Task: structure prediction
Amino acid sequence: MTRSSPWTDLSSELLHLIFSSPQLSTQDLFHCQLVCQTWSRIAHRILYSHLYLSPTTLPLLIDTLTTFEDIGPFVKQITLPYTKSLGYLLDLFGQYCPNAERITLSAAPDPSYWTGLVRGLQRGHWRRLKQIMLPLSASDEPSFIEAVVALRASLEELVLDIDSTTTNTYNAIWTHLTDFISLKRLDLHRTTQTGNLFELEHMLNAGLASTVSTVTFGTYTETTFYLDDSIWLSHNNLTETLTPCPYITSLDINTVVTRAEALLYIAHKFPNLTRLSLNNRCDHLTKGVMYFYGWFDVPLRFIDYLKTIQTVELTLMASNLDCVLTRLLLDHRQSYDSIKFFISLKHQIIHDDQVLRFDPIVKIQKRQSQVTVMMYFMAGDKSLELIQYYLQRFGAVMDQLEIRHARVLDAVLKHCSSLETLHLAADGAIESLDQSLKTANTSIQRLTLEDCVMSEQVYDQLSSQLPHLKRLEIISKS
Result:
């Protein structure tokens, strides 16, 4: 820097950007605060933005806040250890940290946490609190609800863990839902088995503030339930009876959708989504529920609706998967810079002699101009035929492919004419290549072979089939 532009003349915004760099340690910031008053103020803003306190550091910080009262307004988030004097600490930090947005405990909260927040609010504190902790037991819920209602003017994120036994307990929140004038994100942890969409519709119609842009709805418990609204949906015309929520731009539904009408509900209720996440918390049990109940035709309207959303993450088992991928990929190939496929064989998820489907469970991720399609097939000869069919059908639009089945390598070389990167994983030997392959694959430039065993003859055949190969990686995990 020249003398006419010393470091001390840098703007506060630029200094804050520099001091916020992860390359600077806490010790570095302590040194920076000694340079001048401007640097000291910016360093304090970062050093004290989040106070993570232990029983050892707590007395020191209390002394700092009470001695240097100009530091407290910099505090945005506080994490306290649980102590018997929690009420006193909440009163103290409420007085000296007027701009605090989050206050959490390093242990599970008890009623003294929420009653302390309400008492502080009555004294004029916690006016900017954006989020509070959830109760872990039903006995704590009255104190939690009292705090939520009291803080409704400032809360930006509301997370509610409700099941069928406690729904009525939360009526005090639903009746004040329009008063949450700062609310941006509503997260409903649901564990009810039936009527989920009906309950969601009821809550949204009860009066959700137009500030809310993100809604999460589903179950986070070990038992995974599914969205089933056959009674309600069969008696309602969606387009005539539903009132859209145009201000909600981000939606997460973390249960297994089992009816096409539920997808139409989403498309009509949330017309302006920029992000949709559906069925993405797929564990073994979730896939079992989807395997039995989630196999249906995805409506064409919903497929076209997905094309209008910038970020999509959904997991489904569509009986018309060919149509879904055709409308999303083949009809709009020019809209995407990258299309990646991941194809894998799994052991049968559900052992049932009466019900056996070979259609894959598919996870589709779309982020603006990039699409990833993950297909999980049941192990078996029928699945092998389906994999070869999908390679023939959509191979021309793939530019990246990871496939965990060596027996379809011939189909990859034959049909994936635009493929640039291939990752082939196999638990066994590749015995030979199809001698009828007359034309070499000139698109593949990067090849990864994982646990692939092949003879010298097969290797020579593969080399001749990939004349433009630039990078070869061999991985052995066995």
